Amino acid sequence: MAGSADSRQNIESAEERKRLMEVGEIPPPVNPERREYCRTDLLEFLRQYFPETTGLSNFSDDQKGAILRMQIAILQGGSRVLNLFPRGFGKTTISENAALWAVLYGHRKFIPIIGADEHAAKDNIESIKTELMTNDLLHEDFPEVCRCVAHLENKAQRARSQTYQGEPTYIVWGQDTLVLPSIKDAAGNWTPSSGAIILARGLTGRIRGMAHKRPDGVKQRPDFVIIDDPQTDVSAMSPAQCTKRLDLIRKGVLRLGGHNEQIAAIMNATVIIEDDAVDQLADHQKHPEWEGLRIPMLKRFSDNHETFWLTEYAELRRNYNPEDPHDRRRAIEASNQLYLANRERADAGAVATWPECYSRGEHSAIQHAYNILIDDGEDVFASECQNQPLRQNYGTGFLAAGEINRDRVGTWNRFPSDVVSVGFHIDVQKRLLYWTAVGVSADFRIYPIYGTYPQQKNNSFEYRAVKLSIQQVHKGMSEERSIQAALEVLLQDLTGRQWERQDGVKLPFDVGLIDGGYQVGAVRAAIKANPHSGRLFTMFGRGVKAGDVPMMQRSKAQGEIRSVDAAIPWTMKPDPSAKGFRNVFDDTNAVKTFLHRRLATDSGRGGSVELPKGDHRRYCEHLASSEYATETSGPHGTVLEWKQMPGQPDNHWFDTTCGAIVAVSIGGKVHYSRISGGTQRQQETTRRKVSYL
Q1: Can you give the pTM of this predicted structure?
Q2: CATH code for the part of the protein at 401-687
Q3: For residue range 51-91, what is the model confidence (pLDDT) as tens digits?
Q4: d(C-alpha 11, C-alpha 607), whole Å
Q5: Measuring CA to CA, which residue among 465, 460, 463 is closest to residue 433?
Q6: Which residues of the chain have a pLDDT value below 50?
Q7: CA 347 to the chain's CA centroid
């Protein structure tokens, strides 16, 4: 009897599981007229079914043109369409929703979405899955898909057992693969979306040999492909990687359909740098097989581009106290009021591609575009907003890291006998302190010594792989207190050293600077605790751009001291929030350019950089490979603006070497601007000691 009861229970359990896997009744569409209205109109589908994304605001004429090209490619096939959108113009969302339109109506059966890498492509799939799970309008009008999706409750393992009217739906709900349910209507015919596939792949991953066997026995190959931003910042900067990605698109992606049919393809992308993979595809002379359009944020600049936006407006927007957390907001509001009072003059002649594209607190798409140009710089605006990147200077005219390490290494361990001034700078990171001290001769030859606290076993590490951190040495402390303790130890070492030259002369340091951008309270406390605090200052970098008033030409504040050396601009001001402290601000663009020109000066000559005995490859990578310069012009001249190289996070010794040069300049014993006068001028420089302390 017990066995019989167990059997009945097992049967009942199996029937219950079977019942749970059954989707149940699928109702007809709530609004069949709306569904039919959007069948062959992608633009209306985007508007009607996605009110919170692609239907949130009106599209521009250029966006409508791009959507029409996508529609033709999906409906008719064969086309290769390239749409170059500015960043933030919704290109990814449009691509994802267009893929849904194509499969829900049965226009296409197998759509790979190809991203720059596997993670980007999987994000596309997750976004599409979210719409199918949460979009009420899709649930109303496409119940044959969305009811089956809802029945899964976002549990991929349920897909294998799901049934409709006792038959498997063959739905797949994976991280990189989505197969829509195979459902028969009342007449016994497959619904248009049955068995449609959306697949995510990274361009450099597995893209060849895609095929899927449908329930009706047909082996389905891709019949449409969406390529969404196919390059990364790092790959765009490498000609070899650009060539590789172009080959993968030509030989891999565009051959996915086999020989029977030319696969249709849409690529929505943004140019990152000049002549990257996307920029090359957009060149009709090089690639006539792609029909495309560059869509800029501003089709035409204002007639008062220089006389209003880059002068009156920009100066008001940038004129704020960086140490006051509320003053930036005040400056923005003041610039808003200036724009509203002069809107007719400011907007004259300007044409914005998408009038709806502006943020809260702004008043027009034209103002939004100019805010990006003013705040982020011409190079960002040219590539991210205009799809016309400036020509970049990735070390052109400067030595590469390997050349510096090979050509600049000397035989000295102690500073050479011609060093007359020593300064140092400390860069404060959460887990590590980087430092560089430089000895500088009368003819401004620069001799760097560098390290970290805690000291690592070797100098070839990356910050993300630090073996011994501040927190491991100073255990049981808060973050601020551990950094203060670390700074106190390092400052005691650097300020207490007698920097011995090769001739036996011992030099004290002249000035020490500590980065104040992180845990400034800990920095001030460590300075205060040091017996040499009168020669120690917090330092803040300011990247002065071509559109900014140069640092040395701005109004002078009470108690302010300034550099007398135009090549190394800095200013020192009393700290308004900490009595007795003074802050140093330097023009980081100018100082980084200065250091790179010193690196390009022949070894042994005045103004060169000379390395000590040893292997300095990692240090040289920080100096030469961590950042790149873009030449920009503005009302105040031409400037090399420096930005961190994507994929190269470690620039800390670059920062500390620049900071140490500023420290020597503050010390006042040597000035680079005087070395061009020859030996007599150099001797004068040595005799004429100027101190700001």
Answers
A1: 0.58
A2: 3.30.420
A3: 888 767 788 888 888 889 889 989 988 788 898 888 877 78
A4: 89
A5: 463
A6: 11, 393-398, 676-693
A7: 30
